[in-house]
Amino acid sequence: MELHLLLLFMIFAAIVAIEVKDLLSSVIGVGAVGFALCLAFLILKAPDLAITQLVVEILCLIILIRATINKDLPLTIEGRWVFNTVSTLVFVAVFLFFAFLALKEMPVFGNPIMGVVKRYLEQGTAQTGAVNLVTAIILDFRAYDTLGEATVLFTSVIGIMAVLRRPGRKKIEEKSHD
Amino acid sequence: MIDNPKTGMSLIVKTITRLTVGLILLFGIYIVLHGHLSPGGGFAGGVIIALSLVHLILAFGRDAKVSKISMNLASNLESLGALMFLSVALLGFLGGSFFLNVFKKGAPFKLFSSGTIPFSNIAISLKVGVGLFAIFLALIILEGTKRKK
């Protein structure tokens, strides 16, 4: 019940974030979606995910607000509204069709049918010595996945530092002064 | 050194920040070190450590240089974290395969237990925390150079 209320609230906040004209209000709408997702994780008994979602959401909000404040970027949504509406409807229809096909095959919510999970839950602590089974899975049984995840983050940080680095920007400014 | 009233936020915010920033940093370190015992782990703890540094910069202003971590140091530390994680992974070859938990497991519910998992947690926290803080620093420096024009 609480989960459905939270999902409705998230959908409402996402629509507000898209439709509102002010950029700062839009960022706050996105933040509301993230914090509701954090509460949903808590209700589903996943405190690890809830903590991570909470702190990442705070950091993202700070960075987004620093990036959007003092800047009044008006969103231009005028013109070509027929094309925009039709393409949106087509994409929504395609997405719903494939989501229907995919979701038909999913197991019932909260019903674990995978045998691997049962083995992890029964023998995880004995085999790794870690009491927190989430950590036992992501850093022992599935550590290779975590390595890939860390590589993704490393690459994104390198990309951001390469785009925002100082010398390149100075060279461009000198060129424009010449 | 940092009591310049012209930069940063108001006196109230600065005082509260001075009182709480150490506690936030300690909480982040606690979350990292107890990752194999309680909810949390390297990723969440690293982001909390980054948030404590971001907190300092937000309260005291960009020019106060309170955190003493420059962009170069940040990128070096992040690479160190990535190399640490990779070396923990390569330690598994002592026992025969990639990412094998080679150390002694120890008793459950103890701080020093579960083999290589705490080391992986520390490496990931270093990588994630310093990496996200480096992104924040890069954006702040970008905004500063824009304002100077």
List keywords for this structure.
heterodimer; A: mainly alpha; 8 helices; 0% strand; B: 149 residues; mainly alpha
Q: In words, what does this structure look like?
A:
The complex is a heterodimer of chains A (178) and B (149). Chain A has helices at 2-19, 23-43, 47-68, 81-103, 115-128, 133-141, 143-163, 166-177. Chain A is mostly helical and 178 residues long. Among the domains of chain A are: 1-75; 78-106. In chain A, helix 2 packs antiparallel against helix 3, helix 5 packs across helix 6 and helix 6 (133-141) crosses helix 7. Chain B has one domain. Chain B is mostly helical. In chain B, helix 3 (71-91) packs antiparallel against helix 4.
Summarize the model shown.
With 178 residues, chain A is mainly alpha-helical. Chain A is built from eight helices and no strands. The longest helix of chain A is centred in the middle third of the chain and has 23 residues, at 81-103.
Tell how many strands the DSSP assignment of chain B holds.
0
Proportion of residues in extended strands of chain B: under 5%
Could you say which overall geometry of chain A the principal axes of the C-alpha atoms support?
extended
* Apparent shape of chain B: elongated
Largest sheet of chain A: none
Task: Write the element-wise H/E pattern of chain A from the N-terminal end onward.
Answer: HHHHHHHH
Q: What is the residue-averaged pLDDT of chain A?
A: 83
Per DSSP, what share of the residues of chain A sits in E-state strands of 2 or more residues? under 5%
Which structural class best describes the helix and strand composition of chain A? mainly alpha
Please give the count of helices of chain A: 8
- Helices and strands of chain B, in order, run as HHHH
Largest interface: A-B, 39 and 54 residues
Biggest beta-sheet profile of chain B: none
| Helix residue percentage of chain B | 55-70%
- How many DSSP H or I helices of chain B? 4
Unreliable stretches of chain B, pLDDT < 50, 5 or more residues? none
Distance N to C terminus of chain A: 65 Å
